[in-house]
Amino acid sequence: MTAILVTGGAGYIGSHTVRHLMEQGHEVVVLDNLQTGHRGAVLTPHFYEGDISDAALITEIVKKHRITAAVHFAALSLVGESMKFPTKYLEANTVKSQLFVHALVDNGVKQLVFSSTAAVYGLPTQVPIPEDSPTHPINPYGLSKLFIEQYLQMMDTLHGLKWVALRYFNAAGASEDARIGEAHDPETHLIPLVLQTALGQRESLSIFGNDYNTPDGTCVRDYIHVRDLADAHARALQALENGKPSGSYNVGTGQGYSVLEIVEAARRITGREIPTILAPRREGDPDVLVAQVDKIAADLGFTAKHSDLETLITSAWNWHSQLSC
């Protein structure tokens, strides 16, 4: 049994990954400052409320639990907020992550899986997007994550830290038993917004532009179920344990759904009307963002198994519905 430290384990993707790792028999320790996470989503008894930049706390956790690997989710992740407060994002995501990584290395932890993002690519030069595409982030959030990937490369060279960075596309869905799901404040992700509108918690859903170069004019995105994301993290940890070299991987499905496809599927699954209004396009929104997924399939043996549209929306609907009861 491996002892794994998960930062941000009270968050959406983090809590699902904690559960998955526990089901595999690992001892999982969570560190979260609960700024955006939820204490009730933490299913392990080993929980610490604190900051990733607290080297003394990291040292205490690593020594007490004999941590051998870490999964690093803790970060601010709102693109719009990052545009307004770039320094806040670089400090919280990049600077604090550097301090966290140093504390791990100083205490002998040499394996790290890092929660990165497709935002490191910026506006793609080709679709599906391969991992060797140019990385030109167009917002401070993506930049803050890219900086960490580059820093991890240096820490591998200097200290032998082995790492995997997982570049997510659009996370969605909830646990099969509706025990944990997606709850952000403010909520910015499409599927939760659609379902909140279905529940009457919002008057309508804003569709930002219908003149994109896509079949129905709305943006197309690659949606990956959070259960699949959790599996990708577990496979990345196992790859590092097996001696695989460090590197970055896309985590997606290789296909996309448009905004209108999501809305229509949600109407069918929920049986609700889901009113929509057309709003102006958002600056910097690409027409299509879809992952090329050959590399992660070949190296980590990962393919998405729960990311069909029906499962994505039904699992999320079951979770949101029981919340509103």
UniProtKB/TrEMBL annotation:
Domain NAD-dependent epimerase/dehydratase: 4-252
Pathway given in the UniProt record: Carbohydrate metabolism; galactose metabolism
Catalysed reactions listed for this entry: UDP-alpha-D-glucose = UDP-alpha-D-galactose
Keyword Isomerase in record: yes
UniProt cofactor(s): NAD(+)
Entry keyword set: Carbohydrate metabolism, Galactose metabolism, Isomerase, NAD
InterPro entries in UniProt: Epimerase_deHydtase, NAD(P)-bd_dom_sf, UDP_G4E
Family annotation (CDD domains): UDP_G4E_1_SDR_e
Gene3D superfamilies listed in its UniProt record: NAD(P)-binding Rossmann-like Domain (3.40.50.720), UDP-galactose 4-epimerase, domain 1 (3.90.25.10)
Record bears the keyword NAD: yes
GO molecular function annotation: UDP-glucose 4-epimerase activity
Enzyme nomenclature, EC number: 5.1.3.2
Highest taxon, organism lineage: Bacteria
Assembly information from the UniProt record: Homodimer.
Entry-linked NCBIfam families: galE
Family: Belongs to the NAD(P)-dependent epimerase/dehydratase family.
Protein name, per record: UDP-glucose 4-epimerase
